[in-house]
Amino acid sequence: MQRIYLDHAATTPVHPEVVEVMRDVLINHYGNPSSIHSFGRESRHILDQARTTIAASVGAKFHEIIFTSGGTEADNLAIIGAARALKANGKHIITSSIEHHAVLHTCEFLEKEGFDITYLPVNEEGVISVDDVKSALREDTILVSIMYGNNEVGSLQPIAEIGQLLQHHSALFHTDAVQAYGVEKIDIRKLHVDFLSVSAHKINGPKGIGFLFVKEGAKFEKRFFGGEQERKRRAGTENIASIAAFAKAVEIAQQTIDERNKKYAEYKQGLMQVLKSKGVEFHINGSAKNSLPHVLNLSFPGTDVEAMLVNLDLAGIAVSSGSACTAGSIEPSHVLVAMFGKESERLQNSIRFSFGMTNHEDEIVKVGETISSIINRLRY
């Protein structure tokens, strides 16, 4: 049976060239980059080259990149680190109601420490209002954390506009760019962000590695204690093999971004065209235009998401839902709840399709035809 993977927003297959880089470093460059002997110096050179490549990808300075274990750690480091460093100036933080749980659960943790969190609403396209950010700002606001692009529905947030607004306020600005990095062209100077989180496994790199951009001069407290790695900001011997592999994935993503985005747009339109030709009723969750190029979230009226996911999986097609299915019950997606309300039918019938390097056009056609077949079978 042909298997089709349309869940690249969850994670991506590692690019073959990235695998080769990682394998070479694991075998041939095992020195500790903090050591002064030749083995250590070789590893330090690889580390420095990777940091240079990754810094350039977002317009950052070399020393503004901190390597982490992934996007979750980067989010935690930025939000908790900034909150604790700035708490003498206030304890108010602004975020959105559709953030990834790496942000939302971190904010909930800080609430227990006495911080006051404002969770901004979104419209039916999953976008926050800059005016809402402006209205929520207070004298004691120390941090604003808004994701760049939503992982479930793909909605892009007005990051540059918020960054411009905060030029007139003392609050620091963090954006979780885990889902956007590699498909959106990001320039941290134009965005006016102080922190930006990224994870390698979303761009065909290995799992367990990411980075946090920290603008020069931005205050935050470190979370790990030990050695003096990452300029004393993140202790622990650097994961050289994964960092080198990450840099290779970044290099490939930067070189192919336009080509890939064009393909993803074609896949989106192609899938919806097949569904229309088969008479399948569906609605787009989010915006058809102001969206991440590789994410498409569709609502299929009259269907059940759990049954759809199971039947698609049996047909060899991997997609996902924002809902958590456990023991026959469904916990609605917090993103869709924020967009449509707790009573909306879309909470029970929405599926996310996310495209990547392994996909091709005939797969998209097959997915559309299979969905049509499954819906007709389940309904009748």
TrEMBL record:
GO terms for molecular function: cysteine desulfurase activity; iron-sulfur cluster binding; metal ion binding. Its EC number is 2.8.1.7. PANTHER family: CYSTEINE DESULFURASE, CYSTEINE DESULFURYLASE FAMILY MEMBER. Transmembrane segments: none annotated. It is an enzyme of class 2 (transferase). Keywords: Iron, Iron-sulfur, Metal-binding, Pyridoxal phosphate, Transferase. Pfam families: Aminotran_5. Its cofactor is pyridoxal 5'-phosphate. Residues 4-365 form the Aminotransferase class V domain. Belongs to the class-V pyridoxal-phosphate-dependent aminotransferase family. NifS/IscS subfamily. It catalyses: (sulfur carrier)-H + L-cysteine = (sulfur carrier)-SH + L-alanine. This is cysteine desulfurase. It comes from the Bacteria.
